[in-house]
Amino acid sequence: MELGHFGVWTSSRAIGDENGPEAARLAERLGYGAFWLGGSPRLTSLRPLLEATEHLVLATGIVNVWAYEPSQLAAEYAELVKDYPDRLLVGIGIGHPEATSSYTRPLETMRGFLDVLDDAKPPLPREHRCLAALAPGMLALAARRTLGAAPYFVPLAHTSATRASLGNGPLLAPELAFVLDQDNQRARTRARDYASTYLRLTNYTRNLLRHGFNEDDLADGGSDRLIDAIVPHGDAAAIASAARAHLDAGADHVALQTIGEAGIPERSWTALSEALIT
Length: 278
Prior knowledge:
By secondary structure, the protein is of the alpha/beta class. The protein has one domain (6-178, 238-273): Luciferase-like domain (TIM Barrel, Alpha-Beta Barrel), CATH 3.20.20.30. The chain has 13 helices and eleven strands. The strands form two sheets. Strands 1, 2, 3, 4, 5, 6, 9, 10 and 11 form a nine-stranded parallel β-sheet that branches. The protein has a two-stranded parallel sheet with strand order 7-8. It is globular, with a radius of gyration of 18 Å. 46% of the residues are buried.
């Protein structure tokens, strides 16, 4: 698969179920290499987006292991890949203990999930799946058992440390949320509204504490330092600089998520495409 250096990350909740094919066509026309569909989608929901495009890679961001039988996932993958070879990347994640009452033994659970994908007839191949990994153990598992890692809500320091620990080879494709707005106060307000969900989830807060932030940064909606690091804002040139910094730190691909633009974010996607791709 050719992901390119930059993709877009969105969800059906953000753009509307009915707008997925149009959004995918826009992303492809603007030159993005991948379209990441978040919100724990079913794999079958990617078919209309694949049908609407010619070469764009479609990726899940992410399939939640607590909401999917791995044998069913492998079967759905096999049906899709017959029609769309080399255009489907299955992002898989363990979710969060706050969101899943049965959450337990995340590494053991993920290993078991991948075992079933390997043993399926046909299997879901290693090179067509990745993990939404943050902590060292899950990152190492992603490198051993999948194409690599697609971390979410991470600072630049995480990208740098992850590449150093994984070495060359495994995919590293962080998500980067951004607000295309040069008004600092308004942009940070939008960024904090977005970040508030993740600052209540221990998987994310522990990861931030591992990579240069402290408890004060996590309090009261996040310090300016934290918010600006996780959700950069400004004009297209500033956002493009933040995205390229992740590539310079070792990322192979950056999935760009627009914050604060309702519906299909044509304005933001176009501006970033002009700054990064064209």
